[in-house]
Amino acid sequence: MIGDLNRKWQPNQRAIRDSNGKLLVNITDIIQRWTTYCSELYMAQLDQKVSNDLVKELKDISPPLADSQGDILVEGREQIEEQQKSRK
Q1: Residue 74 falls within a domain, yes or no?
Q2: Residue 64 · residue 71 · CB < 8 Å
Q3: What pLDDT does residue 4 have?
Q4: CA proximity to 55, closest of 65, 47, 44
Q5: What residues pair up with 17 in beta bridges, in sequence order?
Q6: Alpha carbons 38 and 32: distance in angstroms, whole number
Q7: Is 19 helix (H, G, I), strand (E, B) or coil?
Q8: Which domain does 8 fall in, by range?
Q9: Based on the structure, what is the number of domains in the chain?
Q10: How far is Cα of residue 33 from the mean position of the Cα atoms in its chain?
Q11: Rounded to whole angstroms, how far apart are CA atoms 40 and 51?
Q12: Which pairs from 77-81 meet CB under 8 Å and 24+ separation?
Protein backbone atom coordinates (compact mmCIF):
# COMPACT_ATOMS: atom_id res chain seq x y z
CA MET A 1 0.00 0.00 0.00
CA ILE A 2 2.82 2.43 0.83
CA GLY A 3 4.46 1.60 -2.48
CA ASP A 4 1.24 2.53 -4.26
CA LEU A 5 1.19 5.92 -2.52
CA ASN A 6 4.84 6.75 -3.17
CA ARG A 7 5.00 5.49 -6.73
CA LYS A 8 4.82 8.05 -9.54
CA TRP A 9 1.83 7.82 -11.80
CA GLN A 10 2.46 6.08 -15.11
CA PRO A 11 -0.12 5.91 -17.87
CA ASN A 12 -1.19 2.49 -19.15
CA GLN A 13 0.59 1.59 -22.33
CA ARG A 14 -1.77 0.20 -24.90
CA ALA A 15 0.51 0.24 -27.89
CA ILE A 16 2.78 -2.42 -29.31
CA ARG A 17 4.74 -2.77 -32.51
CA ASP A 18 3.95 -5.20 -35.27
CA SER A 19 6.53 -7.41 -36.98
CA ASN A 20 7.46 -4.54 -39.31
CA GLY A 21 7.97 -2.07 -36.45
CA LYS A 22 4.74 -0.14 -37.05
CA LEU A 23 3.10 1.14 -33.83
CA LEU A 24 -0.31 -0.40 -33.16
CA VAL A 25 -2.76 1.46 -30.90
CA ASN A 26 -6.11 0.05 -32.01
CA ILE A 27 -7.23 -2.70 -29.60
CA THR A 28 -8.29 -4.98 -32.48
CA ASP A 29 -4.88 -4.65 -34.11
CA ILE A 30 -3.13 -5.29 -30.79
CA ILE A 31 -5.16 -8.45 -30.18
CA GLN A 32 -4.43 -9.66 -33.70
CA ARG A 33 -0.71 -9.01 -33.22
CA TRP A 34 -0.64 -10.91 -29.93
CA THR A 35 -2.47 -13.79 -31.57
CA THR A 36 0.03 -13.89 -34.41
CA TYR A 37 3.00 -13.59 -32.05
CA CYS A 38 1.83 -16.39 -29.77
CA SER A 39 1.03 -18.61 -32.76
CA GLU A 40 4.57 -18.12 -34.05
CA LEU A 41 5.99 -19.09 -30.65
CA TYR A 42 3.87 -22.24 -30.44
CA MET A 43 4.72 -23.23 -34.00
CA ALA A 44 8.44 -22.82 -33.28
CA GLN A 45 8.09 -25.02 -30.19
CA LEU A 46 6.02 -27.53 -32.11
CA ASP A 47 8.58 -27.66 -34.92
CA GLN A 48 11.35 -28.21 -32.36
CA LYS A 49 9.37 -30.97 -30.61
CA VAL A 50 8.54 -32.67 -33.92
CA SER A 51 12.17 -32.57 -35.01
CA ASN A 52 13.33 -33.94 -31.63
CA ASP A 53 10.77 -36.75 -31.85
CA LEU A 54 11.85 -37.53 -35.40
CA VAL A 55 15.52 -37.72 -34.41
CA LYS A 56 14.65 -40.01 -31.48
CA GLU A 57 12.54 -42.25 -33.71
CA LEU A 58 15.29 -42.49 -36.30
CA LYS A 59 17.82 -43.41 -33.62
CA ASP A 60 15.46 -46.08 -32.29
CA ILE A 61 14.87 -47.74 -35.66
CA SER A 62 18.37 -47.41 -37.09
CA PRO A 63 20.47 -50.58 -37.20
CA PRO A 64 23.40 -50.82 -34.80
CA LEU A 65 26.76 -49.56 -35.93
CA ALA A 66 29.06 -52.18 -37.45
CA ASP A 67 31.95 -51.18 -35.20
CA SER A 68 30.02 -51.67 -31.97
CA GLN A 69 31.86 -54.50 -30.27
CA GLY A 70 30.19 -56.60 -27.62
CA ASP A 71 26.64 -55.64 -28.51
CA ILE A 72 24.26 -58.50 -29.13
CA LEU A 73 22.18 -58.03 -32.24
CA VAL A 74 18.53 -59.04 -32.42
CA GLU A 75 19.36 -62.03 -34.58
CA GLY A 76 21.98 -63.17 -32.08
CA ARG A 77 19.56 -62.82 -29.18
CA GLU A 78 16.90 -64.81 -31.02
CA GLN A 79 19.45 -67.50 -31.79
CA ILE A 80 20.46 -67.74 -28.13
CA GLU A 81 16.81 -67.94 -27.04
CA GLU A 82 16.20 -70.82 -29.46
CA GLN A 83 19.24 -72.66 -28.13
CA GLN A 84 18.04 -72.23 -24.55
CA LYS A 85 14.56 -73.49 -25.43
CA SER A 86 16.00 -76.63 -27.03
CA ARG A 87 18.05 -77.41 -23.90
CA LYS A 88 15.00 -77.56 -21.63
Answers
A1: no
A2: yes
A3: 67
A4: 47
A5: 23
A6: 10
A7: coil
A8: 2-62
A9: 1
A10: 22
A11: 16
A12: none
Whole-prediction pTM value? Answer: 0.42
**Residue 30 · residue 14 · CB < 8 Å:** yes
CA dihedral of 21, 26, 29, 30, whole degrees rounded to 10: 70
Residues 71 and 80: their CA atoms lie apart, in Å, by 14
d(CA 34, CA 53): 28
Q: How far apart are CA 28 and CA 44, in angstroms?
A: 24
pLDDT tens digits, 22-45: 998 888 888 888 888 888 887 777
Residue 26 resides in a domain = yes
- Distance between the two ends of the chain, CA-based, in angstroms? 82
Whether residue 88 is contained in a domain is answered as no
Position 23 in a domain: yes
